[in-house]
Amino acid sequence: MHPDETYQLLRTLTSPVVAITSRRGGKRNGMISDAAIRASIVPDIPRLGVFIHKFNYSHDMVYETGVFAMHILHEGQVDLVHRLGFYSGRDRDKLAEVPHRDGAKTGAPILKDNYCWFECVVGNVMDTGSSTFFMGDVVDCGRGPGNDQLQPASLRAALSPDIMAEYAAKLADAQTFAREMSKRMVSGYSRPRPASP
Q1: In the prediction, which pLDDT does 51 show?
Q2: Is 100 helix (H, G, I), strand (E, B) or coil?
Q3: Is residue 52 within 8 Å of 94, Cβ to Cβ?
Q4: What are the two backbone dihedrals, phi and then psi, of residue 158, each rounded to the nearest 5 degrees?
Q5: What is the C-alpha separation between 176 and 52, in angstroms, rounded?
Q6: SS3 93
Q7: How far is CA 188 from CA 3, 126, 185, in A?
Q8: What angle do CA 108, 30, 57 make, to 5 degrees?
Q9: Of the four, 43, 78, 94, 98, which is 20 to 30 A from 6 by CA?
Q10: From the CA atom positions of the chain, what is the Rg in Å?
Q11: Residue 58 in contact with residue 134, Cβ under 8 Å?
């Protein structure tokens, strides 16, 4: 199968659009991801997982502090996706004009507008080459005021042609970086030997 066809099939696994926020010292940041999953089916052991690419400013903040907040966004937050997803926190305070509060358990910024939010402490990490998978133990969570989770397909349909072109250019740059970094992944996994017949 051609890589582009494989990529389109993999996109069916994309999560709702989420914002990930973090804080390190006096610096706060937010980013957008569509790679978040539930990581536990046990009600009293709530966990989730997010993949954060290493080129994101948030990556090092989460890696170094061990805390983050994840917010599932609602359909009315397309502008927030542009604000948090198209710029780097290295260059600007992306949360400066976004209403939020400090999380009670971790201090990670909690956005006031969302579908729902989860405050997390990192419980485990896995290097994927171009990104890190952070498993978060949920230490607090809540329901926001928004309705209807923002899905990637509805987000793409809501973006203007100019912003879609900007997104395509940023995606191409990210894929170039990720392609090279993915080749450098060091695996700690050793395959079990097959059982003898």
Answers
A1: 96
A2: strand
A3: no
A4: -85, -15
A5: 16
A6: coil
A7: 26, 9, 10
A8: 105
A9: 78
A10: 17
A11: no
